[in-house]
């Protein structure tokens, strides 16, 4: 059988052509995590969300020169994230801040509630409360004399992008919003799709990146073609066989995803309908172990506890479309074509919700994944290990869009 791609990935693949701006060079982050530049200075700062009585700590990078400067606040994706958005050796928010501050844009990035030096309980912080944190960050920057108060925006990754859009629909809105792989689906729909896709990917393929899966698929296709040629097949026969195989795999992928999606939707609905956390956790723990026999009881219960936190429960009912009609500031929607966590179709859903706004730009970024990483072949190497970097295409797009505001 020909393995053209991981089954769960087939449904979300698309292509786009995007030129890389030569001047958009992203610096890799050394293993130490320390990045220094002669083009900006860094300040350790803290600001307070007075309504929630929490103080949040972060880093403000300010370009050298007299100022005042345009500025952005970086908002992390869901989960407990530090100010750098650290995921193993990848620090996307640090890379984004480093690049933009070298380009004359001040950047504030901060630890989520309950992470690093920030106060609060992360698991209990709902999306609505994250919006208040973002508003407090904007207010903090607007009060500084070295910032241009009318040019302070929000850049949010994943859920952070939706947080930015909600903030833009309310009073004291930011000057602009940039979303990086934000969702347009109802929270429980997005979580169900994401979890079903991840479940299938784990069951069918252990590769870590879409690029690796494509390489394996290409190698398998080459072997299949060589075998058919050796058996006397002509080009037309080979092309037909490959097309038929791809269609069969796509149909099978759709069936498997549909089945997994229904299972995830049922699990999330149980959580929504079961107010008692202990009861919900017991049911979810049992369902998780039924779905994966290799999952031990402790792991299953830990996952069930995460799925009944105040944040998770609130996110099940989060509607990213609500309030979009009230967003009047400029918006840039960015999404990678290799994003298998949040489908590319979410960008079109957001654009539809923002149709009353005449200042919306949307752009697909080729070979960019959910983490907004550049293609793996372009990664620098430290100690013989490739180190992921933020997409130069995305960086140049963000920089140029902010400059033209």
Automatic annotation (TrEMBL):
Domain Serine aminopeptidase S33 residue range list: 90-253
Q: Keywords assigned by UniProt?
A: Signal
Cite the Dienelactone hydrolase domain residue spans from the record. Answer: 308-396
Superkingdom of the organism of origin: Bacteria
Signal peptide, first to last residue: 1-19
One Pfam family linked to the record: Hydrolase_4
Task: Tell me the GO molecular function terms.
Answer: carboxylic ester hydrolase activity
What SUPFAM superfamilies does this protein map onto? alpha/beta-Hydrolases
Q: Which InterPro entries match?
A: AB_hydrolase_Est10, AB_hydrolase_fold, Dienelactn_hydro, Hydrolase_4
> What is the protein name for this chain?
Uncharacterized protein
């Amino acid at each position: 059988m020909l393995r053209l791609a991981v089954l769960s990935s087939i449904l979300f693949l698309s292509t786009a052509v995007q030129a890389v701006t030569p001047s958009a060079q992203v610096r890799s982050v050394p293993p130490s995590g320390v990045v220094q530049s002669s083009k900006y200075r860094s300040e350790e700062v803290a600001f307070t969300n007075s309504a929630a009585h929490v103080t949040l700590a972060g880093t403000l990078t300010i370009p050298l020169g007299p100022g005042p400067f345009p500025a952005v606040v970086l908002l992390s994706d869901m989960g407990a994230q530090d100010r750098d958005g650290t995921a193993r050796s990848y620090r996307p928010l640090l890379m984004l801040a480093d690049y933009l501050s070298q380009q004359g844009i001040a950047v504030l990035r901060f630890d989520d509630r309950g992470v690093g030096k920030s106060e609060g309980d992360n698991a209990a912080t709902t999306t609505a409360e994250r919006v208040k944190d973002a508003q407090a960050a904007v207010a903090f920057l607007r009060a500084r004399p070295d910032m241009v108060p009318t040019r302070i925006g929000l850049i949010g990754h994943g859920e952070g992008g939706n947080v930015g859009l909600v903030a833009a629909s309310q009073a004291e809105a930011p000057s602009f919003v940039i979303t990086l792989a934000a969702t347009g689906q109802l929270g429980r729909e997005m979580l169900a799709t994401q979890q079903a896709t991840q479940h299938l990917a784990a069951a069918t393929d252990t590769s870590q990146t879409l690029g690796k899966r494509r390489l394996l698929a290409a190698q398998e296709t080459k072997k299949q073609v060589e075998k058919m040629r050796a058996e006397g097949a002509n080009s037309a026969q080979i092309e037909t066989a490959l097309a038929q195989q791809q269609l069969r795999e796509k149909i099978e992928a759709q069936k498997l995803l549909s089945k997994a999606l229904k299972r995830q939707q049922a699990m999330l609905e149980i959580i929504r309908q079961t107010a008692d956390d202990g009861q919900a956790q017991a049911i979810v723990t049992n369902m998780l172990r039924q779905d994966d026999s290799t999952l031990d009881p402790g792991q299953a219960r830990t996952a069930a506890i995460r799925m009944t936190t105040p944040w998770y429960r609130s996110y099940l009912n989060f509607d990213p479309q609500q309030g979009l009609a009230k967003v009047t500031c400029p918006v840039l929607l960015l999404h990678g074509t290799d994003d298998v966590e949040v489908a590319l179709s979410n960008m079109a859903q957001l654009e539809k919700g923002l149709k009353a706004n005449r200042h919306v730009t949307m752009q697909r970024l080729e070979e960019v994944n959910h983490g907004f990483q550049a293609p793996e072949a372009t990664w620098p190497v430290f100690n013989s290990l490739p180190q992921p970097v933020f997409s130069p295409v995305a960086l140049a797009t963000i920089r140029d869009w902010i400059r033209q505001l």
